[in-house]
Each structure stands twice: as C-alpha cells, then as structure tokens.
Design a protein that fits this description.
Strand order of the largest sheet: 1-2-3-4-5-6-7-8
Shape: globular
Radius of gyration: 20 Å
Low-confidence stretches: none
Helix content: 40-55%
Largest sheet: 8 strands, parallel, barrel
Strand content: 5-15%
CATH superfamily: Phosphoenolpyruvate-binding domains
Order of helices and strands: HEHEHHEHEHEHHEHEEHH
CATH architecture: Alpha-Beta Barrel
CATH topology: TIM Barrel
Mean pLDDT: 95
Number of helices: 11
Number of strands: 8
Number of domains: 1
Structural class: alpha/beta
C-alpha cells in the first residue's frame, strides 16, 4: 500500500518511508505551470525543477549558464501547480561551490523565494559540510552523484561514470557521506547498475536512478525526453513513453494550413 494519498502533499519524511516499505519512487523534471500540473495529477511523487532548464527552456548546450534568479523564477510556476508532488529545485552551478556560508544562504533563498520543498546539489564528500549546514538550517537536500552535468568540462563529456574500481569506491564513499550529512535522497546518474544497487543497499536514504538500472529506489527522467519532444536525444537509458514531437508538428502544420486557406476560424468559432 502506498505511504501517501492524493489529497496530501508529500514530504521528505514520506519519501524516506517509501524506501522502508519498498515502494518505488517516481521523479520527473518540469519547468512550467502547465506541464507541472499534469505531472502532479499523474501521481508523480517528486517534481524536479532541473537545471536542465538551461538546455530545455533556454537552448544552452550545457547546464552551466542558468542562474539562481532564473531557477527561482521557473520553480515558482512549478510550485503553484504542485498540489501533491514534492518540488525539488536544482541549485545552479556557482551557487554553492564557493563557500559553505554562501551555499547555505543561496539554498535558503531558493526555498524562501520559490516555495520549493527541497534543493538538489551535485557532488560528494567535498560538499558534505555545506549540505550538513543546509539540513541544520532547515533546508532538505537531495544529493546527486555519478554523471554530474555541472562538471561536464572537468569530466570531459557525458559518458558512463564509475566504471573503474577506484571511481566506484569513491562514489560509494561519497554516497555514505551524503547520507550521513542528511540528504533525504540521492540521484545516481549514468553509473553501472550493479554499483547503483550496491549504493542503494548501503545508504539509508532513497536512491533515484537515471541510467543506473532498476536496482535503485526510484527513477527520474527529463519530461521532454520521455514525452518524445526531443527527437534528437536518444541515449540508451531513455524510454520514450510518447512521441509528441510528431503530434505537435502535425498540429502546428495543420494550424498554418487552416489559417492560410481561411478555414480557421469558422463561423462557429466566430462571435
């Protein structure tokens, strides 16, 4: 039986309880009110306002350019739509890496100004102290390990992470550090399935996988990718649950034709 009902808003405590009872957790990204409302109504437990908005919304090649102000603006609309889902907002590149006190201040600002329920940070032991201080200050934190897009320039691309033993052992140590620091969940991106399953067993908080196999406590995908709106992006881990690119294209071309041939608006559509 589910640990929550559709007439209550999810909390980080309930997300933790889902791991304890063995209920899988669903997470999807969203960046605007209209789509977030649909995600919320579908029963998705966590809506992530990802810094992937830098790509999806702003058209940037990487996630790095998006700012804290822009993330707050986007998160506000998602929060207004979410009646049941927990809303997690990504802390953008540069907002938490410089100093711990600045990181805590920015995380508090995110919650106060956007209304988000929690924040997400990329990184392991090197940011554990900042996370611990955020949690003490009352800011719930979701961790993120494996492929961390904000470090793309350092990592040299978007390839599979932690294939070798040394990096795998570091990831496990990082996960333990984040768990100890108080993260209520940890995203594991693009790592071997066996490693993700081991991490899931060794930490008390839930793990959310993306390209990390079925052994995690939940799954996350970018909404526009799983809806098939980005036809050019088809990594191995992505399942397209719809092909809306084709449907939207048909609708748009039909609109253009209807306007051009004066069949829209019809008499019935006129006042």
């Amino acid at each position: 039986m589910s640990v929550h009902t559709q007439n209550t808003r999810l909390t980080t405590t309930k997300i933790r309880q889902m791991k304890q009872v063995g209920e899988k957790i669903t997470m999807l990204t969203s960046y605007d009110f209209t789509l977030a409302r649909l995600v919320d109504q579908a029963g998705v437990e966590i809506i992530l306002v990802g810094d992937s908005a830098s790509n999806i919304v702003c058209g940037n090649q990487y996630t790095l350019p998006i700012t804290l102000d822009e993330m707050i603006f986007l998160t506000k609309g998602v929060v207004r739509a979410a009646e049941h889902s927990l809303v997690v907002a990504d802390m953008p590149f540069g907002s938490y890496q410089v100093r711990d006190d600045e990181a805590v201040r920015n995380a508090i600002r995110m919650l106060k100004e956007s209304g988000a329920d929690a924040v997400k940070l990329e990184g392991g032991q090197e940011i554990a102290d900042a996370i611990r201080r955020m949690v003490v200050a009352g800011v719930p934190v979701c961790g993120h390990l494996g492929l961390t897009p904000q470090s793309v320039n350092q990592l040299g691309g978007y390839g599979l992470r932690a294939k070798e033993e040394a990096e795998a052992e570091k990831l496990i140590a990082d996960a333990r550090a984040l768990d100890k620091a108080g993260c209520f969940c940890i995203v594991l991106e693009k790592i071997p399935a066996a490693l993700a399953e081991r991490v899931t067993r060794e930490v008390s908080c839930p793990t959310i996988g993306i390209g990390a196999g079925a052994g995690t406590d939940g799954q996350v995908l970018v909404l526009h990718d799983m809806l098939g709106l980005n036809e050019g992006f088809k990594p191995k881990f992505l399942r397209q649950f719809a092909h809306l690119n084709e449907e939207v294209h048909k609708a748009l071309t039909a609109y253009v034709e209807a306007v051009k041939d004066s069949s829209f608006p019809s008499a019935e559509e006129s006042y």
